[in-house]
Structure formats: C-alpha cells, structure tokens
Amino acid sequence: MHRGHDHDHEHWDGGGQRPGLGHNHAHHPKEAAQWQTPHLAKERHTHGDAETHGEPDLDLVEAAFVEAFTTASDPTSFLRLAHVPFEAHSAEGVKLTLLRVETDVVTDVGALTPHLGGQSFRYDPLPAGMVGRRRRLRFVYFDGHGLRQLSLAELRELGDVQSR
C-alpha cells in the first residue's frame, strides 16, 4: 500500500537509478511552448510550415533583436554577429543585396469581432490595459528590379552567396 493505492512499480531510490514504469516514470523534456499569437501580416499566413512550425518563440527572438539592434554602437557588426547575410540568394535563385533594416512600433487600439455569417463586424476600442504594443522588424533587400521586405523567419531561409 502506497499513499492510498496498491500496485507494483519501482520508486526513485535516491542512488542515481531512474524510476521504472508507472506514475513515477521519467518524463522526457518537452519542447518550448508558446501561448502568444504572433502578429503576422496576412500574406505571411499563406507561406506554410515555416511560419507555423518554425522556431519556437521566434517573435520573442525578434523582439530581442530589435531591442539590441537599435542600441548597437556598430550596427554592421551586430548584423554579422546575428548571421544576417549582406548578400544572399532567394529560393528562386535571385541574388539579394541588403540595403537596410527597418523597425517600427505598432500599437493596437481596437478590435474587430465578426458577426455571424462573416458579412459584417463589430468594432470595439480597447481599454488601456488591453492596448497591444509591439515592434516590427523587416530586412530590405534589392533583387535587381525592386525592393523585397523579409521577416526574420524568411531571412533565415535564405542561402548565403558564398555557399552557392
């Protein structure tokens, strides 16, 4: 009998032996979980697995990048440390050249709630405690014809010019 239940299983013996099966079995470490919903642009929701199953907590990594980059005494060296390519190739093989890093502050002050059927919606201003503030980060590359704005997730998928 053990705390109100009776069954056979091994217990932790304190001598470095892992417990066996049963309610005292060893648990495997779990992957990082993220309960926040990252604020992604509409067009980024259609890119597939890179956005939805990519690096855990990428929005927190991006926030840390923005915070450190804006105060870096040498932004070029900071980009090198962060492994941001100055020249890269897109998935289509187009050469991209980094021109600038853009950050901006976004403040959400209202919310939309769709009505049943989705043809109309209700707008509600947010109270001060629910106002959301975040910074956005974009890497602007020139592709030979125009500018391409890439998120941190998209940037990590680029191939370096030297590796091709």
Describe this structure in words.
There is one protein chain. The chain has a domain at 59-163. The strands form two sheets. Strands 6-5-2-1-7 form a five-stranded antiparallel sheet. Strands 3-4 form a two-stranded antiparallel ribbon. A hairpin with a 4-residue loop joins strand 5 (132-142) and strand 6 (147-150). The longest helix has 14 residues, at 58-71. 18% of the residues lie in helices and 27% in strands. The chain is α+β, with helices and mostly antiparallel strands and 164 residues long. Residues 41-52 have low confidence and may be disordered.
SS-derived structural category = alpha+beta
> What is the CA-CA span between the terminal residues?
66 Å
The unreliable regions are 41-52
The overall pLDDT average reads 77
Order of helices and strands: HHHEEEEEEHE
In DSSP terms, counting alpha (H) and pi (I) runs of 4 or more, how many helices? Answer: 4
Q: Please give the number of β-strands.
A: 7
Cα-based radius of gyration, to the nearest Å: 24 Å
Gross morphology: extended
How is the quaternary structure best described? single chain
Share in β-strands: 25-35%
Strand count, sense and barrel status of the largest sheet are: 5 strands, antiparallel
* Strand order in the sheet with the most strands: 6-5-2-1-7
Helix content: 10-25%
